[in-house]
Specification:
It is a single chain. By secondary structure, the chain is an alpha+beta fold. It has helices spanning about 1-5, 25-35, 40-45, 65-70, 145-155, 175-185, 240-250, 250-255, and strands at about 10, 15, 75-80, 85, 115, 120-125, 130-140, 165-170, 200, 215, 220, 230-235. The strands form four sheets. Strands 8-7-11-12 form a four-stranded mixed sheet, with helices on one face. Strands 1-3-4 form a three-stranded antiparallel sheet. The chain is globular, with a radius of gyration of 18 Å. The protein starts with a helix and ends in a 6-residue tail after the last helix.
Amino acid sequence: MRAILLAFPLLFVPCLHAQTGPDPARIKTMHDQIKAKVLDPASLAALGRTTFGCRPDDEGAKTNDFTTAARGIHAVSVNPQIQSPVLDANPIPAPERPPRYYAEDKRPSASEFIFLNQAGQGQKVAALAGKVLVVFLFKPDCKYTPDLMGEIIRLQGMQKGKAYEVVPVSIGSEGWSGLARWRQLNMSILPVDFPLYRPGFQPGTGASVFGELYGTPTTLILDRHGRVAWRINGSIKGALADRLNHILLEGLLETLPAAAS
């Protein structure tokens, strides 16, 4: 495992859900690995940029970053079939995570998902057929959201000929008033006209269409038919925009072989 980690210099760590609380046995296992210097802080620093996550509920500010990092490390690998850096879907340890890429015949539909602007105007994914969407699900109370949002803003700026549309959606429980406060606090990074959305509130139109979310932020790339083609848990600070842009503009979204699923 150490050899694998040292071979790939970029890591990302998601904000983990805590609906049932952390598994003590799992934490102990990770701490044992840390003590064995498999994932100690010095090794992590040597491996390159790392994004530490927080829990997606109100415990975020209380969570120890080091422990959070130990519970959810993902590595970056290279798919030899496309000679491009892609996100590895094998966290340490988290076998329940979904795959990073869904083959053409295995893509779950998200066509009923609706994202709402502050005026209450909704846009359904099904109405945007023919357009690739990058849906960024985030929670304002994650203290690392500003850094990760910066990556999404950078991605939006990379668009060439409107090849895709970026859709940042807050799935926090704070509502529009809380989201407005968050925007005010982060005016230094948010362009004046940068849109922020909320999910649909009618059954079957919200974030539940994506299935269980294993952490925030979660980034989903929807193909031109409104189906989930890529799903990325967490983020890579300073690298997520580049990875997504490469996938989108180089046509990898539609051309990856089925074996990648």
